[in-house]
Amino acid sequence: MNKNSGTNVEARIQQLEETIAHMSRLSEELNEVIARQDAEITRLTQRVEMLWRHAAEQQADAESGTIPLADQRPPHW
What we know:
Keywords: Coiled coil
Protein name: SlyX family protein
Distance between the termini: 73 Å
Strand content: under 5%
Organism: Paracoccus amoyensis
Helix content: over 70%
Structural class: mainly alpha
Radius of gyration: 29 Å
Order of helices and strands: H
């Protein structure tokens, strides 16, 4: 193995190490984004459920004997 060949191997190893470091950092950043999105989706789902309950309660108070809004199919179904 000549000196030039050893230098090429070292350069390739260094490039691979840099690529792995970049991908590790990117993976951590994406994991943080996913964790934030999961928390936001959970929060928004709870709000939507609360709003559906509130709307159904208001409709039940206003119109006795009708189907609650939460149990109705959307008009496009």
